[in-house]
Write a structure and sequence with these properties.
With about 400 residues, the protein is of the alpha+beta class. It has three domains: about 120 residues, Butyryl-Coa Dehydrogenase, subunit A, domain 1; about 110 residues, Butyryl-CoA Dehydrogenase, subunit A, domain 2 (Beta Barrel); about 140 residues, Butyryl-CoA Dehydrogenase, subunit A, domain 3. The strands form three sheets. A four-stranded mixed β-sheet has the order 1-4-5-8. A four-stranded antiparallel β-sheet has the order 2-3-7-6, with no helix packed on it. The structure holds flavin-adenine dinucleotide.
Length: about 400
């Protein structure tokens, strides 16, 4: 067992650090208020940052950093440890390091896609030319995706799509949808859905942004009215979409934005050192020290899961259990960190972004609200515990 990085990995970390410092605008810390493991404050989902993010993706593509974990034949570096280092550094800076396209769609296509699908989509994803949104949830289907109603009907070379998706993060700024639709309503559960790529510009698509709890339009409701989807856009096989989405969800669950935890802790430690409370630095207050130490330990535990998962993937394993552990522990920790931060900042922590009295630029009041989103998106905490119970502990399904 070796707990250190190689010299090459350390150099790579430095290279990403230098890139982040050069490429992020000088006022980035003021603008980007991403809360660790939250879904509602990701700068990559905000319209305001679209142009900047589009350009950043192209730059990352030129450096080969959108495909770090991919095999070399698809332009990758074949290293999930390096990918994890990259994400750690970029999320520390609250920067959008990648996108649904390279973090979720690309790896899923690599695993389940046909050669033609790989040829058509992977190079473009790797170059950072396009962005996806995830079309799984519907008004009456979230945890139970077998009950979706969006219907795709076979029409020769194409499918005709009708239905509605909801909570579709980033649909308003993306180029393509990654849609799960019912193709055989009479099939047994999990055997009648198909995953397909849908051009956002197709006639018949209506996208309506929804404002989230933080006042940011990060997600949408999306309607499909007789949308034509070429059959060549099927991911995996027809009626095997449920399995493909389980793979895609696994990749999504790895996406914890771990560096942002470290960043919040650093900022809270700095705040405690600089702030006077009852005539002495807050850093000398036993309750504050207690909360900071408790958070430091839990963040270290999260890093333990994080590096282990990347290491397992480099050994060729598909980390079904680890992805659920990471997602569950990370998003619940995002909530705990928000609670601890709010208590450390006191009443001022509740002030909104924009108030001159709001500590840490209003980050904590926003993060406190956004932290409710993490344990719900990409499969709720209860669903993750169910996976851990069956896959990890070998308990029966019901
Ligand atoms: C900020 C945010 C962004 C999102 N972005 C997207 C997106 O881009 N694309 C997308 O498709 N969806 C997205 N979602 C939706 C998300 O995937 C669903 O909200 C989630 O899967 C839960 O579904 P639901 O809300 O329908 O709740 P339900 O499935 O109705 O669940 C309600 C409650 O019942 C519990 N429950 C349900 N089933 C079980 C079970 N088997 N065992 C134990 N408890 C159970 C749940 O844990 C939950 O507490 C997003 C959600 C959030 C919060």
């Amino acid at each position: 067992m070796n707990f250190d990085f190689t010299e090459e990995e350390k150099q790579f970390r430095q290279e990403v650090e230098d890139f982040a410092k050069t490429e992020l605008p000088a006022d980035w810390d003021e603008k980007a208020l991403y809360w660790p493991a939250g879904y509602g404050t990701l700068p990559g989902l905000e319209k305001e940052f679209k142009e900047f993010h589009d350009e950043l993706l192209l730059k990352l593509g030129r450096k080969g950093w959108l495909t770090i974990g991919w095999p070399e034949e698809y332009g990758g570096m074949n290293s999930m440890i390096k990918h994890a280092i990259f994400d750690d550094v970029m999320s520390y800076h609250r920067a959008p390091g990648g996108d649904v396209s390279n973090a979720i769609a690309g790896p899923t296509i690599l695993l389940v896609g046909s050669d033609d699908l790989k040829k058509e989509w992977l190079p473009r994803i790797g170059r950072g030319e396009l962005r996806f949104w995830l079309g799984y949830s519907e008004p009456n289907a979230g945890s139970d995706l077998a009950s979706i109603k969006t219907r795709a009907v076979d029409n020769g070379d194409e499918f005709i799509l009708n239905g509605q998706k909801i909570w579709s993060s980033g649909a308003h700024i993306a180029d393509y949808a990654w849609v799960l639709a019912k193709t055989d309503p009479d099939a047994p559960r999990y055997a009648g859905e198909t995953l397909m790529i849908v051009d956002n510009k197709s006639p018949g698509i209506t996208i309506r942004p929804i404002e989230n709890i933080c006042g940011i339009c990060s997600f949408n409701e999306v309607f499909f009215d007789d949308v034509r989807v070429p059959k060549k856009n099927i991911v995996g096989e027809v009626n095997k979409g449920f399995y493909c989405v389980m793979m895609a969800l696994l990749y999504e669950r790895l996406f914890v934005g771990i560096g942002a935890f470290r960043r919040v802790l650093d900022e809270l430690v700095e705040f405690a050192k600089e702030t006077e409370h009852n005539g002495q630095p807050l850093a000398k207050d036993p309750l504050t020290r207690d909360k900071l130490a408790a958070m430091a330990i839990e963040i270290e535990i999260l890093y333990g899961f994080y590096w282990k998962t990347a290491w397992l993937m480099d050994k060729g394993q598909v980390p079904v259990l680890e992805a659920s552990v990471l997602k569950l522990f990370g998003t619940e920790l995002g909530r705990k960190l928000a609670g601890a931060a709010m208590e450390i900042l006191g009443m001022y922590g509740q002030l909104k972004r924009g108030s001159k009295w709001a500590p840490l630029r209003g980050l904590v009041s926003l993060g406190y609200m956004d932290s409710v989103s993490g344990p719900i998106g990409a499969g709720t905490s209860e669903v993750q515990r169910g996976i851990i119970a069956t896959r990890g502990l070998g308990l029966p399904r019901k």
